Amino acid sequence: MRKSVFPYAAALVAAAFALVACETKTNNSSAKVSNDDTTMNETPPSRAFNFTYEVTVPVPEGTSELAVWIPLPQDDPRVQKVDNLTINIPGHRVTTDPIYGNPMAYVQVANPSGPMKMSWSADITRWEDRGQGTLPMNAHYLKANSKIPVDGKALAMARDLGALDDSTPLEKRAKAIYDDVLNGMEYNKKVPGYGAGDFERAVTVCKGNCTDFHARFIGIGRAAKIPVRFTMGIPMKAGKTSYNSYHCWAHWHDGSNWRPVDISEADKVADKDPAKAEWFFGHLGESRVALTFGRDITLAPPQKGEKLNYFVFPYAEADGKPVKMGKSDWEFRWSDL
Questions:
Q1: Above 50 in pLDDT, residue 146?
Q2: CB-based burial, 139-167: b 16+ in 10 Å, e otherwise
């Protein structure tokens, strides 16, 4: 059983136990990491690298028109700076989705003969995120998504965690929700159904990957009227120079800045390094690339198919129908500058 770092938070998590069908873990740490220490006034560590996003789009036989959307990197002052962006897609245009402002490269190809290779590259500087991000707020960061409610069980859990109490400082309320997710979930990709970011599954099965962990945090946070932003990106794992999957994290808004959390990464280290697990409430390392915000994504121009649950991989339609793609169709590479 994992003991919560703060007795206060442990009590709040216990109050919510009846709402979920999962065991609550504990840890034995008394460590505390504050975002109010002197490190907030220091220049955060940074990493500068060239990043390439490459995709080979399979073209179904007989396609008359192929449409492709590829996410582009976020430019987030003081957190992620993008320079020398080069898009290697003949005939493309850069568009922005109407809800979250995500930039993307879009191209239409008549009578394509595939497969078709497309890519972009950029020089990116990424700083350790200590909550210095100041991108604009968005009303959708308080709203439900198709797989994340802000009423029902999410609201009940927010209430039982004390997150609806305006007399409690906002950071303590956000931390209570963080602890609920950390102590109530397990990073586990063996149980079928993981990865969809389904709130209901996250509070009943209580196992999954980063998408599932942060769906639970988002649902309870937004139910408590705390704006929470979801980010999809690419992890730059130590010892690797390429990858073909994603990582996601979240931010809650303190009224001025976006404060980061990475609860699935915290869970991976919580038993051996509880202090590091606490560090992930308010910190993100610099070895990652942020691509898109939000869930239920409408692309620009709008896709013919359903809204995207999230947008980190390329999306394509052949004559208005989604093209099936998988990890063998894309690769993300980087090299330090």
A1: yes
A2: ebbbebbebbbbeebbbebbbbbbbeeee
For the 48-126+298-336 domain, the top CATH level (class) is mainly beta
CATH 3.10.620.30-classified regions of the chain:
7-41+130-290
Whether the CB-CB separation of 248 and 231 falls below 8 Å is answered with yes
At 277, phi and psi to the nearest 5? -60, -35
- Cβ neighbours around 240 below 10 Å, total: 11
CATH number of 7-41+130-290, picked from 3.40.1580.10, 3.20.20.60, 3.10.620.30, 3.20.20.100 = 3.10.620.30
Prediction pTM value: 0.90
Are 273 and 279 within 8 A, CB to CB? no
**DSSP summary character for residue 27:** -
Q: Given the DSSP bridges, would you call strands 207-208 and 228-235 parallel, antiparallel or unpaired?
A: unpaired
Q: Which of 74, 138, 136 is nearest to 102 (CA)?
A: 74
DSSP letter string over 93-114?
EEEE-TTT--EEEEEEEES--S
Over the stretch 306-316, which tens digit does the pLDDT of each residue have?
Answer: 999 999 999 99
